[in-house]
């Protein structure tokens, strides 16, 4: 299999491995990448190789070893294994070491306010105290600046290393999940879904990236709180306990929040699983959904699950809003309570006391109200995810098979089955031989290496050659021989790139026959001892089928034991041994001649003669007969892929020689340049009216004004108290000029004498009012913001889903399922949780930074002089960073898609991968996909740190200028103003770079919005409803006319139907035949308008192009080649719109002989079907699809090779039901089995998109040079004679007047409304 990766040889070695210490601390080694990114768009080739210690295989193997040991220990101790234990044992040493960085950082945070206090003490004593030492003050100012630099460096070292630790755990866990997925047995696969596994890989493992950031604060928070409390006791005495009490109360509140988060997370994850599983089914079965006109039903189903999911997300977002608001206002409340208690206890306010206390509370506030609760929240969420992953890792596995078997002599190869008992359906025996099913009893021995061609072909994204070689070395002669034997030479010759042409996900640009032959060629190319071939002849026409049997099965493989499941009974004579199964039991076995005396075998052949001629006869209920290669005793079955089988189209996509097929699969779109204002407006207006959005602006400004005024009031209070204590104002301008409103706080005239004492009541009341306003406004704005953003996510998801459902089928052919699911899982996950939090956080931090600069500018106006150049440097740095950062984030998103595509493709072909013993190779390919994503993620982390270090450099410069500037202007500075400015300036470290990085993060996350919005604007097919409404009983007759119809699947592709002119009369039965790629299914696509045809298609006189798609499609029934059932009840699969009574449903099931099967189910019609209806066999699923058609009672029925993959008994039942229930309907039948359509009124023969022949079968068979005649002759003399006889009988038995009347009806209808011409040959 080819992985869509760039050649790693083109990428460069990772420079961080060889960088020096200085370069590692300041991330200087990223310089060349930023230079490249500033000049041009970055591509995958620009990324660096993943570091050896970050490789997926290495990390996964390490964690897997610890998990295996834990499972063994748990088994010995008779307890369930704990995944958390394995994680702790694997990572505790390296993670604890990282804690040293954060311990030193938080220590400096506690020491820094003490240094600030000493600096303020200088201003309180200057110029009145002669002992005040200016050099000492400069020393304290220098210490504040140096501690700021160390604070920044330690902060970034810590976060870089914890992010890398989280990344490693995530990578290791993804490796283990994929490894487990490759080992799941059939019972385990029934317990999980593709959606759940995708959700584990997209959302659950991301919790490890988040939890590692905060985990250290669980022990550091209480420790830091204790240290701060001791310092505050020394500073303001017992009053500090009042403030600390608030902090202590916050901890249990946060614990409750954490539990609520945990509950909501579990509910949200379960609903997300359902939604993504449903999405996976919708994308896989999109053709059926469109042909049935079921889009509205699935829109309602998905929207309902999404509504429940968003309800939980909204609740958790409100909790987050309260969390964030409490972080925003907690410090204000704590300081208010502490200082109020301090003043009311009789103490006097002093600037050094106020701002040291403010800074100390600020230091611990961040830890206690943000990091500590975040740690609790993330641990709660992660434990839920760990439990989900653990449950998955403990699912049952297939019995391990040896991967490297020695080559066995052909005569020694053996499959021995004796008294075998399994849970049987037609898939069971081959599944048991392959080790896919656990046997209950009996003996099953296999000696020799197996290879397997599945019944439903599995094609993965890559070239045709890579699909055939499947990891084996290319041996040209052998390869050419296999292509010839599998009838692929002609297809390859028509391609400009030959076998190097890229095929899309699920073989999107191949016909059913081409997929089947490539699937067979893959098995034939392997050097196996025993070949299990599960009905490889059913999807091809008789000529190709004979070629495959003679040249491949009895040609290239003639010296190998072969177990062949087939419905083509004409080949039984060539078998060395035949086994007949009936309802899971063997009823006969032996050679063809030995079985001539067997009643069961003779009845089988007789049924074949009755129904199909001796060639393609009927068969025992429940099981097809076996054609078995030499020297094997064995059996048959028809194996469906275990999970997520490719539900690829009913419509035949353009034949392989189309130009499109030779082009590489479309690369996932990746935008360039900045995220525009328009996108932000689209995002915000999706969740709220613009009036509400406008009201958020004053709400935010008011909240932050109250926030700043509270601190300003404290500074003013402290300064006034200082003046009051000194008994007079200092000389010079009154202090109120340093403040924005110019009012003297106690109402005294500016130049008047100060009062003997301050009005304590006034100061406390105003202070309390400002505190209350800060709290109230802070909570309101957070709640409103989160409400708007979660509603935006819900609205955009629904719009994206609706747009996807309305997009043409071509969109799904060009885009792998993993790529589409990535938008609905990862990108929507970002919109649901991370983006709202980041967006609100950015707004709050932005306002705080602007507040710091405003306060500093009012206190020291000249500080704007250095701020201007610093701001210019910042703008350049941000622009320089974002040019690279945006590309890296987009690369991270697009390199994530191959991980999901590879997983999805692997699950579809699980049985084949295991049969070929290719698990290790597929694991390596998954690791390669992961490593590619890791390269992008590593650059995303390191470039963010590069930027943050430099931003903190700007902040350190600003703090240094402010600190030394205050000392330089000491004659004009009040202690309160100095305290306010410096304490605010110190908050810039961390906060400024965090805010700017959050702005960059918002912009990066907006790429998820961009990707979602891109899907809301997909090209749409025609309207579901139009003003043209036919009568309710339309089509009453069911006549169909194609008038000069040309058809292609897109405007860029060549025509697949050319100048088609056909009249199909009311109630006429028309068979449609032709070689692979002739355009048979394209004709049906044109009829259902899966792409818009050029020309006129009319049904009962109404032009289909003028009708709504639902009006058109819901009035026709289709029985598809690949039966599609959806997760849900039997009832909803039969009657999704609840239009029929129970009696109708049971009658329909009885008519297709499924009533007994459904009655045996636990809840009958209300029984929930597994994903893709995997608790029914292929034949039973096909019968359910037939029951749907019976219920719909439409006058037009289309059968698209519906019996290609079912046994003759089911085929016979389907044909009989169609003849009885749809006698008065127009029936179009596409078939490879000529016996299926030989009874039709007329047969339409297509070749290369044109009509070659169109007439009654008997008439066409009179032309010995005709295409149909040649196709009949290629079935073999016995079968051909039978077909000739049947056509003749039908012709003779027909009521000629009746037929003439039908044709005359058609001509009258044409004369009434439509000009029609048709041609019988070209």
Automatic annotation (TrEMBL):
InterPro entries tied to this protein: AAA+_ATPase, ABC1_TM_dom, ABC1_TM_sf, ABC_transporter-like_ATP-bd, ABC_transporter-like_CS, ABC_transporter_C-like, ABCC4_TMD1, ABCC4_TMD2
Domain of life: Eukaryota
Main location: membrane
GO BP of this protein: lipid transport
One annotated Gene Ontology cellular component of this protein: basolateral plasma membrane
Basic and acidic residues: bias regions: 655-669
Record's keyword terms, sorted: ATP-binding, Membrane, Nucleotide-binding, Transmembrane, Transmembrane helix, Transport
Ranges where the ABC transporter domain occurs: 319-608, 1040-1273
Annotated ranges, domain ABC transmembrane type-1: 96-380, 754-1004
TM region(s), chain numbering: 137-160, 213-236, 242-261, 321-344, 350-372, 688-709, 764-790, 862-881, 947-970, 976-996
Repeat found in the keyword field: no
Ranges for region Disordered: 610-634, 647-669, 724-752
Subcellular location: Membrane
Gene Ontology MF terms in the entry: ABC-type glutathione S-conjugate transporter activity; ABC-type xenobiotic transporter activity; ATP binding; ATP hydrolysis activity
A family per Pfam: ABC_membrane
PANTHER family: ATP-BINDING CASSETTE SUB-FAMILY C (PTHR24223), ATP-BINDING CASSETTE SUB-FAMILY C MEMBER 4 (PTHR24223:SF357)
Protein name: Multidrug resistance-associated protein 4-like
Source organism per UniProt: Gadus morhua
Lineage per the UniProt record: Eukaryota, Metazoa, Chordata, Craniata, Vertebrata
């Amino acid at each position: 299999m080819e992985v869509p990766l760039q050649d790693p040889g083109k990428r460069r070695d990772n420079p961080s491995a060889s960088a020096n210490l200085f370069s590692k601390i300041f991330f200087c080694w990223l310089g060349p990448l930023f230079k490249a990114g500033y000049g041009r768009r970055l591509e995958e080739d620009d990324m660096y190789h993943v570091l050896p210690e970050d490789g997926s295989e290495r990390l996964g193997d390490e964690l897997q070893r610890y998990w295996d040991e834990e499972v063994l220990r748990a088994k010995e101790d008779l307890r369930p294994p704990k995944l958390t234990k394995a994680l702790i044992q694997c990572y505790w040493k390296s993670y604890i070491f990282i804690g040293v960085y954060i311990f030193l950082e938080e220590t400096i945070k506690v020491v820094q306010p003490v240094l600030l206090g000493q600096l303020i003490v200088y201003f309180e004593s200057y110029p009145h105290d002669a002992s005040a030492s200016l050099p000492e003050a400069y020393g304290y100012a220098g210490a504040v600046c140096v501690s700021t630099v160390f604070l920044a460096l330690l902060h970034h070292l810590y976060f870089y290393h914890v992010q890398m630790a989280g990344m490693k755990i995530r990578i290791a866990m993804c490796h283990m999940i994929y490894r487990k997925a490759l080992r799941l047995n059939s019972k385990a696969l029934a317990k999980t879904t593709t959606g759940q596994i995708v959700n584990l890989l997209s959302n659950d493992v991301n919790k490890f990236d988040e939890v590692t950031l905060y985990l250290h604060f669980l022990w550091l928070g209480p420790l830091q709180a204790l240290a701060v409390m001791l310092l505050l006791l020394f500073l303001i005495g017992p009053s500090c306990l009042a403030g600390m009490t608030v902090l202590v109360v916050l901890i249990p509140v946060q614990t409750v929040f954490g539990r609520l988060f945990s509950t909501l997370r579990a509910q949200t994850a379960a609903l997300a699983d359902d939604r993504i599983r449903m999405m996976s089914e919708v994308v896989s079965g999109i053709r059926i959904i469109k042909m049935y006109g079921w889009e509205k039903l699935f829109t309602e189903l998905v929207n309902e699950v999404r509504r429940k999911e968003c309800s939980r997300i909204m609740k958790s977002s409100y909790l987050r809003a309260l969390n964030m608001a409490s972080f925003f206002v907690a410090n204000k409340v704590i300081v208010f309570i502490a200082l109020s208690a301090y003043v009311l206890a009789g103490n006097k306010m002093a600037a050094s006391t106020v701002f040291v206390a403010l800074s100390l509370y600020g230091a611990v506030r961040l830890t206690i109200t943000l990091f500590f609760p975040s740690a609790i929240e993330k641990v709660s969420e992660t434990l839920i995810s760990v439990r989900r992953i653990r449950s998955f890792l403990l699912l049952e596995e297939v019995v391990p098979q040896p991967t490297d078997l020695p080559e066995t002599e052909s005569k020694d190869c053996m499959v021995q089955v004796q008294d075998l008992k399994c849970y049987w359906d037609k898939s069971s025996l081959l599944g048991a031989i392959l080790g896919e099913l656990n046997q209950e009893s009996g003996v099953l021995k296999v000696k020799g290496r197996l290879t397997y061609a599945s019944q439903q072909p599995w094609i993965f994204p890559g070239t045709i050659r890579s699909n055939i070689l499947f990891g084996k070395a290319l041996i040209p002669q052998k390869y050419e021989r296999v292509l010839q034997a599998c009838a692929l030479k002609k297809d390859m010759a028509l391609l400009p790139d030959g076998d190097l042409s890229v095929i899309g996900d699920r073989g999107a640009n191949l016909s059913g026959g081409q997929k089947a032959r490539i699937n067979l060629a893959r098995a034939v190319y392997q050097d196996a001892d025993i070949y299990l071939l599960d009905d490889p002849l059913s999807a091809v026409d008789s000529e190709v089928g004979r070629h495959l049997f003679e040249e491949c099965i009895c040609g290239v493989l003639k010296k190998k034991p072969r177990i062949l499941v087939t419905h083509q009974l004409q080949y039984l004579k060539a078998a060395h041994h035949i086994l007949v199964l009936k309802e899971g039991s063997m009823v006969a076995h032996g050679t063809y001649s030995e079985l001539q005396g067997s009643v069961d075998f003779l009845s089988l052949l007789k049924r074949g003669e009755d129904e199909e001629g001796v060639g393609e006869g009927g068969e025992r209920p429940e099981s097809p007969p076996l054609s078995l290669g030499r020297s094997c005793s064995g059996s048959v079955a028809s194996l469906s892929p275990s999970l997520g089988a490719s539900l690829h189209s009913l419509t035949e996509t353009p034949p392989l020689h189309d130009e499109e097929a030779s082009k590489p699969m479309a690369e996932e779109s990746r935008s360039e340049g900045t995220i525009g204002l328009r996108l932000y407006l689209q995002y915000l207006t999706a969740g709220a009216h613009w009036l509400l959005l406008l009201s958020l602006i004053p709400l935010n400004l008011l909240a932050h004004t109250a926030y700043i005024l509270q601190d300003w009031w404290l500074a003013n209070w402290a300064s006034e108290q200082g003046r009051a204590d000194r008994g007079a104002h200092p000389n010079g301008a009154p202090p109120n000029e340093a403040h924005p409103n110019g009012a003297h706080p106690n109402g005294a005239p500016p130049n008047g004498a100060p009062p003997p004492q301050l009005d304590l009541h006034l100061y406390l009341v105003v202070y309390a009012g400002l505190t209350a306003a800060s709290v109230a406004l802070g909570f309101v704005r957070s709640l409103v913001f989160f409400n708007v953003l979660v509603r935006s996510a819900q609205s955009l998801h629904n719009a994206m889903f609706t747009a996807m459902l309305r997009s043409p089928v071509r969109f799904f052919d060009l885009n792998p399922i993993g790529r589409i699911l990535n938008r609905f899982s990862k990108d929507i996950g970002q919109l649901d949780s991370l983006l709202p939090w980041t967006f609100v956080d950015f707004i709050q931090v932005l306002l705080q930074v602007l507040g710091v600069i405003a306060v500093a500018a009012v206190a020291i106006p000249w500080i704007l002089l250095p701020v201007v150049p610093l701001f210019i440097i910042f703008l350049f740095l941000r622009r320089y960073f974002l040019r690279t950062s945006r590309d890296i984030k987009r690369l991270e998103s697009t390199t994530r898609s191959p991980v999901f595509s590879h997983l999805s493709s692997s699950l579809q072909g699980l049985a084949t991968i295991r049969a070929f013993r290719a698990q290790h190779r597929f694991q390596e390919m998954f690791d390669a996909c992961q490593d590619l994503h890791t390269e992008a993620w590593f650059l995303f982390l390191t470039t963010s740190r590069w930027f943050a270090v430099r931003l903190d450099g700007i902040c350190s410069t600003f703090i240094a200028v402010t600190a030394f500037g205050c000392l330089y202007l000491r004659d004009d500075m009040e202690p309160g103003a100095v305290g306010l400015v410096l304490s605010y300036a110190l908050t810039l470290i961390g906060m400024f770079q965090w805010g700017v990085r959050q702005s960059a993060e918002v912009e990066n996350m907006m790429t998820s919005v961009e990707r979602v919005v891109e899907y809301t604007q997909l090209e749409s097919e025609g309207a579901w409803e139009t003003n043209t409404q036919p009568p309710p009983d339309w089509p009453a007759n069911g006549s169909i006319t194609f008038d000069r119809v040309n058809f292609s699947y897109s405007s860029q592709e060549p025509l697949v139907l050319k100048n088609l002119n056909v009249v199909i009369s009311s109630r006429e039965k028309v068979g449609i035949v032709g070689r692979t790629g002739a355009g048979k299914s394209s004709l049906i696509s044109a009829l259902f308008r899966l792409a818009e045809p050029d020309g006129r298609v009319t049904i009962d006189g109404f032009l289909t192009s003028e009708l709504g798609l639902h009006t058109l499609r819901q009035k026709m029934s289709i029985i598809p080649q690949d039966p599609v059932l959806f997760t849900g009840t039997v009832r909803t699969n039969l009657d999704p719109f609840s239009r029929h009574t129970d009696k109708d449903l049971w009658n329909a099931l009885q008519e297709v002989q499924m009533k007994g099967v459904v009655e045996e189910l636990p809840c009958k019609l209300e029984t929930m079907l597994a994903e893709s209806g995997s608790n029914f066999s292929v034949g039973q699923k096909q019968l359910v699809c037939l029951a749907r058609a019976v219920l719909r009672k439409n006058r037009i029925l289309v059968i698209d090779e519906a019996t290609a993959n079912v046994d003759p008994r089911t085929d016979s039942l389907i044909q009989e039901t169609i003849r009885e229930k749809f006698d008065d309907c127009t029936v179009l039948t596409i078939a490879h089995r000529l016996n299926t359509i030989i009874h039709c009124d007329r047969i339409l023969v297509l070749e290369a998109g044109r009509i070659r022949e169109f007439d009654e079968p008997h008439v066409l068979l009179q032309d010995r040079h005709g295409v149909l005649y040649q196709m009949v002759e290629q079935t073999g003399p016995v079968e051909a004679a039978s077909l000739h006889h049947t056509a003749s009988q039908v012709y003779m038995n027909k009521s000629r007047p009746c037929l003439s009347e039908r044709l005359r009806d058609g001509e009258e209808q044409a004369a009434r409304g439509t000009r029609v011409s048709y041609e019988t040959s070209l």
